[in-house]
Amino acid sequence: MIITTENLIYKYGVGTPFEKTALDDVSLSIEDGDYVGIIGQTGSGKSTLISHFNAILKPTSGKVIVDGQDLWQDNKHKRIQTRFKVGLVFQYPEYQLFEDTVYNDIAFGPKNMGLSSEEIEKSVMRSIEFVGLDKKYLKKSPFELSGGQKRRVAIAGVMAMSPKVLILDEPAAGLDPKGRDEILARIREYHSETKSTVLLVSHSMEDIAKNAKSIIVMNRAKCIMHASVPEVFENAGMLEKIGLDIPQITRVFISLNEKGYKVSRNIYTVEDASREIMRCLREGGLYD
Ligand SMILES: Nc1ncnc2c1ncn2[C@@H]1O[C@H](COP(=O)(O)OP(=O)(O)O)[C@@H](O)[C@H]1O
Ligand SMILES: [Mg+2]
Asked: What is the pTM (predicted TM-score) of this model?
């Protein structure tokens, strides 16, 4: 397991009238190399949860163990090492760009890690390739770029630290559909090439279905489910009850199945759907 939480509780504003339990007894384990989607309504605790994984937030009680290290038991030096192991891309990370050039922005993390300038250059080049940004931008100011390009620079900056775990909080928010698919495809490629663990926070079931292998479902500060994608989407009723929805295409295939058509219920993407329809047609039609 790369990340484990044990009875993790987090409260904002302890001792004030605004005290709020944002994580309520969360115990979960994330397998090394997994691609985990984290879903849940706004305010369910997703961002609070992931902020614990690189020690930005300290549990009110409970444990966070990363790569075998109890983050708040072990000494501070080790905790700083963990920050490099877990790369966190915040929501709208483009607002955090601040260096004079794209190169320096991406190089900021690796520099902090104390890498040599050769190693820094290598990791910068590798990570702009991961996010699909042309080398010609490296000398430009980040402020000359479009919104989508800035987002890529910010993501590349975290990838450049080669974290064992890459966590992205709504990385596609605010992008157009093409931009969304593009950035998610890049992250998918990064995952399969580096074999690192990826955590993707998203409220889009389609995006999660297309990308993740397992899903953590958050609801009102609790982790109410952590299972494979098909297992989670089998619980359409439960998801609906907590204000989430299965992908539209899944809904279509479940109702086709219920109407007696011989199609699978586990269809999550349009590509799955077309493959399934072709399969049915090849095997002698959609009817019994
Ligand atoms: N800095 C904060 N101070 C007080 N309450 C907060 C703060 N950040 C988040 N919360 C509250 O904690 C709960 C969980 O928030 P958050 O983790 O941001 O949820 P999500 O990312 O799922 O939208 C919400 O009720 C939110 O209002
Ligand atoms: Mg959030």
From this structure: 0.93
